[in-house]
């Protein structure tokens, strides 16, 4: 392998890394979680799905992408009533991921893309991306991989809820590793819904996420019984095709010089 064809960040030597920096590949950081996903799916759903998506992205665009090892733990205390769930405090998660992105920026990469697979990480990876831009001369963006598959899902879905251990995630897992899915244990579940709020932040008005142990005993939000490997293949291809497009757009995005509009001197020593 060479820097031109190797898409796994940690498989390069330091000499080859210099070549990858010169090529200005987009560095991809997958973020997921280790948490309960109902009685039918393993704890690794979010980490496994996002990692598989990102590695396939690397295989399809090896000359433009370098994929970092997956951050497999995230904000999860709301799932802690279910055995096996691992929780990382949000401040710790942000600091950890920011150290990764700042390291990548330090070496000279200009574009860093966080690809997230765990819903509760969403506000955290958004902050990591913003803080990276403010602290470095690089650009960092964040995307939930599954958002790129929503339009395809609308064409094939048979159930109303897209949330957790549902038709979407279960279909993807069935496509990628069917031997790990216990479809005989799959059951539907829903959260508590009011006029403005819902237990799992499915309301269009209010962001609110309660302890799952207060409203479910199965750990499912959605209906995985309608999931199939065929649907998973459609979702996988839809996500990958759009992710490749996103990488190409981001790679071409200009890093323009800043234009300071102050007429007097500014205090550049302030560290924020």
Annotate the secondary structure layout.
Elements lengths: L13 H10 L2 E6 L13 H16 L4 E3 L22 H18 L3 E6 L5 H14 L3 E6 L5 H7 L10 H10 L52 H24 L20
Parallel strand pairs: 1-2, 1-3, 3-4
Helix pairs in contact: 2-7, 3-4, 5-7, 6-7
Description:
The chain has helices at 14-23, 45-60, 90-107, 122-135, 150-156, 167-176, 229-252, and strands spanning 26-31, 65-67, 111-116, 139-144. Helix 6 crosses helix 7 (229-252). 36% of the residues lie in helices and 8% in strands. The chain is globular and about 60 Å long. Helix 4 (122-135) links the parallel strand 3 and strand 4 (139-144).
**Extended strand count:** 4
Class computed from helices, strands and strand pairing: alpha/beta
Based on CA atoms alone, the radius of gyration comes out at 20 Å
**Lateral strand order in the biggest sheet:** 2-1-3-4
Mean pLDDT: 97
Helices and strands, in N-to-C order? HEHEHEHEHHH
- List segments where confidence is low: pLDDT < 50 over at least 5 consecutive residues: none
Percentage of residues in helical conformation:
25-40%
- The geometry reads as globular
**Whole-Å distance between the termini?**
42 Å
Number of helices: 7
Largest sheet: 4 strands, parallel
Q: How large is the share of residues in beta strands?
A: 5-15%
């Amino acid at each position: 392998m060479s820097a031109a064809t190797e898409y796994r960040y940690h498989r390069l030597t330091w000499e080859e890394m210099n070549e990858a920096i010169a090529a200005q590949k987009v560095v991809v950081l997958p973020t997921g979680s280790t948490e309960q996903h109902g009685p039918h799916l393993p704890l690794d759903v979010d980490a496994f799905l996002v990692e598989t998506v990102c590695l396939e992205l690397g295989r399809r665009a090896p000359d433009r992408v370098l994929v970092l090892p997956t951050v497999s733990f995230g904000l999860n205390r709301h799932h802690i009533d279910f055995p096996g769930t691992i929780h990382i405090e949000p401040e710790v998660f942000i600091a950890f991921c920011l150290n990764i992105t700042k390291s990548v920026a330090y070496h000279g990469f200009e574009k860093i893309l966080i690809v997230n697979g765990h819903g509760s990480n969403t506000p955290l990876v958004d902050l990591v991306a913003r803080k990276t831009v403010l602290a470095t001369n690089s650009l960092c963006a964040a995307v939930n991989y599954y958002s790129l598959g929503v339009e395809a899902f609308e064409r094939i879905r048979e159930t109303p809820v897209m949330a957790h251990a549902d038709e979407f995630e279960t279909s993807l897992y069935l496509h990628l590793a069917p031997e790990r899915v216990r479809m005989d244990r799959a059951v539907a579940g829903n959260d508590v819904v009011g006029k403005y709020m819902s237990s799992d932040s499915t309301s269009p008005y209010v962001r609110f996420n309660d302890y799952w142990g207060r409203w479910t005993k199965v750990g499912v939000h959605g209906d995985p019984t309608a999931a199939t490997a065929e649907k998973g293949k459609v979702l996988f291809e839809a996500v990958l095709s759009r992710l490749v497009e996103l990488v190409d757009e981001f790679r071409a995005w200009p890093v323009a010089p800043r234009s300071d509009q102050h007429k007097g001197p500014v205090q550049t020593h302030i560290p924020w």
